[in-house]
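ARCHIVE CARD
Drawer: 12
Card no.: 0347
Subject: one protein chain, sequence and derived structure
Cross-reference: see card 0346
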Amino acid sequence: DHSIRIWDTHSGSCLAILDQHVDGVNSIAWHGNGSLASGSDDNTIQIWDAGRGVRLATIEGQACAVRTVAWDSDDRIACGSEDKRIRIWDVSSGVCLRILEGHTQIVSSVAWNNENRLASASHDSTIRIWDVQEGVCSMVLDKHEYPVTSVAWNNVGNLASGSTDNTIRVWNTHSGECLAMLEGHKNWVTS
């Protein structure tokens, strides 16, 4: 229905419906200040004041559907899209600061860590670690057999990845070593 709903988890009531996208919503990400970013098949990122249910900004400039969004602590948003690229946006100005290229298929997930590094997952079955300041890929992790659908950092710099190969892998992102492969799911790991 092209909308985002904000729920009161205690009462179960819907507090707000954010419905300014004109196509499906693929990803949302909270910011520490209470703002919400959403990425959509309409090729935009919307920035919301979720508490008031008000759209604050629309970031345009994507060539294809936005599949994933993630905030960093400097008010930048990374987004991955169907055009195989990652864009880094300055939220306050709406300016694209950098385009990261290297994946050969859809970028399905992005995640920042505390060291100004970004991880990206793709349907090309790889994970890339990016030095965003320099705009370069510093590492490619390629042990998954099928599309990688999600990535998430822990607080010591290790990365977990989920894939349509039904596994979760845990990575040391300084050495590139796969620390563990967790098997047991009977279907895709998507988040």
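Annotation on reverse: The chain has a mean pLDDT of 93. The first strand starts at residue 4 and ends at 7.
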